[in-house]
Specification:
The protein is elongated. The protein is built from two helices and two strands; from the N terminus they run ββαα. It is an alpha+beta fold and 98 residues long.
């Protein structure tokens, strides 16, 4: 079993001590950095000073990106299925000729 790693992440002027698997460190640090950058952007663009509002806006931004990716993938999957069905039908038609 791998050793746990203790790290501290700073988000919205608060430090969060975490105990994680070493394989999670890079992703967590990148995520914290992305949150910090987006929070600063919201604070500057909308003159929002309440950290809770800024973090809620960040959460909404990230969650909407995830949901949109799911929607896009679903639409792409439907398109691929339709193309495969058309190809299957074409192949079946060609095989019937022989």
């Amino acid at each position: 079993m791998s050793e746990k790693l203790k790290i501290k992440l700073s988000i919205a002027d608060r430090v969060y001590p975490l105990t994680i698997d070493p394989s999670q460190e890079e992703g967590l640090r990148k995520a914290a950095k992305n949150i910090e950058q987006l929070a600063k952007k919201f604070e500057q663009s909308y003159a929002v000073r309440d950290k809770q509002d800024v973090l809620a806006m960040c959460a909404l931004q990230f969650a909407s990106k995830i949901e949109q990716k799911g929607i896009d993938q679903s639409e792409n999957t439907k398109e691929v299925e339709e193309r495969l069905k058309a190809l299957d039908s074409l192949i079946a038609t060609k095989l019937e000729w022989k």
